Write the structure tokens for this entry.
Amino acid sequence: MTEMSGGQAAVAALRAEKVGHIFGLIGSATMEMFDALYDAEGLDFVGVRDERTGTHIADGYARASGGAGVILAGQNGPGATNLVTGLAQAAAAYSPVVSLAGSLASGHVYRDAFQEVDQQALFRPITKKTWTVTDTARVPEMMREAFRTALAPRRGPVQLNLPRDILSRTADYEPMQDPKAYRPEVVSAAPEHAVAAAAEMLRGAKRPVIVAGGGIKNTLGADQALTLAERLNAPVVTSPGHGDAIPFGHPLNAGQMGPRGNPVASRLVKEADVILALGTRLGFNSTFYSYDNINRDARIIQVEQEPTALGRYFPISLGIWSDAPTTARQITAALGNLDARAEVEQWSGAFRTERAGYLRKRDADADMDAHPMQPSGLFHELRAAMPAGTAITMDAGTLCLQATDALNFDRPRSLFTPLDFGLVGFSFACGLGVKLACPDRPVISLMGDGGFGMTISELATAVAYNINTVTVVMNNGCWGAEKAYQRDFFGERYIGADLTNPPFDKVAELYGAKGYRVDRLCDLAETVRAALACGKPAVIDVMVDPAALYSFRRDSFQHRAKA
């Protein structure tokens, strides 16, 4: 038994979890923890400038590493409330963020105390679980529960509130448990009868399509999905935001589907007779919940770790509650050796021809000469400049949404987006977490000027901790998505849409980072390469045509569309 304060015990529990980095903003409510972190070997603390962006950093770290990302809000009240946007984003992305926040002293609850807010009620709707430690002796138990809950399927964020008196008191503790003692590591397989039924449906398909989602990407299940696709000779489309679920260069990769995808992948899902949905909800970003984006007559086999996702938006022929890569491997085995089938050969051959033509047209149609710069030219040059293994983070917004299927990802966990929550101000901070999780990989963060202006203070964090990412600010001087809606549906009655920005390259230099400005497309690729090699956090301020706007949510404004 070892006597420790609750704060020391919390840090000991983090070390037992082998947490590499903890992100946070110092505050008096958790000072016992920060003092324990001072000499906690193997646990690096990264101080951030805002709890919201710190949560995005932890989110990026979690998604890139495959483990948990930890954020510590040192102060109760405002320190805790600043976590809300980041945790809501993590919840929408099923990202295992362990959020720790200082909390009011137990004896001050319900007394209108300084910085009092009901943190239990605040976080409950946006986390898998929210709870408050009530006994110093139970701190390690509650920390174990936090990690177990966050990392259990379906993954997601948790919130643990730590009252300051709980952290300051002492108790006697047993040695910290190894995570293997309380966290399962075996994935779920599909029952044999379901595998046999799925194999039978796929064996009879004439126009099969596999939809690969987060359940393939996040589990690094590309090999299992592609082995099955090759056995079937079936194209693989990916759900939006998961264009990296399988490598770009694979001949069966059709790219992202749906309203935010490309026309080739979208057509495949509209015409398929059997759709195997591996680790995807077939949700909003993929389908807009509409048969305009998926074949009404297709038989759907859906494989998901989350049972409530099965058949939730579209009727399915077979729902399998299990791990997507494991089930893909089982189905491949059940299919055995398939003879070539003329209809499938024709279907797949036509797809390959169309896909190759689409990619050639994408390059040929890129506007390389316009001034100001056009998005198609910008993405063309980024494709040329990105080294192998580059991780790309994105914001929401009109330019980033255009980029989701315009770049090429050579491996899983290369694309990190906030599409499920539609969050602006995510990309730069997320990229810092990705870089810390994968220090040897190049990381490029795409942002609009509005989103970067929200989060620019984290340049101080990037410089202080040598987190050398490259942020490309696509600067069009406006809130692009909203201005597009005002242009297309509200008679160009612009209000609140235009932005006045500082020179972001100069601001970066003032923080101690490297700054670049690009006005001409011909300079972009070389500037990106220079930024990647500069040995500092880098910001590239790219001047983009403010008129190059696109209304993505046209469905929301059909009532205003002109006949």
